[in-house]
Amino acid sequence: MNIRALKESDLPLLRAIHAQHFSEEFEFPDFVSKFLCCFAVEDSDGNIISAGGIRPILELVMLTDKSESARKRHNAMFNILSASSYFARQGNFDQIHGFVQGQEWENILRKVGFVPTKGNALVLNI
Question: Domain extents for the chain?
Fold first, then answer.
């Protein structure tokens, strides 16, 4: 097997692979403009077995003084979310991720537009 940089000429084949195997699971990735780097792995005959890469994602991390009133905390969250959304758009990002522990915060974030991710969120510490 050989790993190499993904080429734009690989995209039609990758679109076909996506349509055949993954179209119901997720949209075709924007390898050209949303990824830091992309790779293709070929077999000895030059057939692409797998392709992928690293896409930056934004994670919103927030600390809240729970001794303050719920109204103040809610307003503060909206301010942080608004500012974060502004800067995300300026950086050409189309998503902000939030990883919550606790049903209360999950419910609040859902009310302001957060939706579950497709698949399970996993992390690799490197």
Answer: 2-54, 58-111
Alpha-helical runs (H) found in the chain: 11-21, 70-90, 103-111
Best CA proximity match to 58, nearest among 35, 27, 28, 85: 85
Measuring CA to CA, how many Å separate 75 from each of 8, 52, 105? Answer: 45, 39, 14
Instruction: With cut-offs at 50, 70 and 90, classify the pLDDT of residue 123.
Output: confident
Type and span of the H or E element at 2:
strand 2-5
Q: Answer for the pair 114, 78: CB distance below 8 angstroms, yes or no.
A: no
Q: What is the pLDDT of residues 3-36, one digit of tens each?
A: 999 999 999 999 999 999 999 988 999 998 889 9
Rounded Cα–Cα distance for residues 64 and 76 (Å): 9
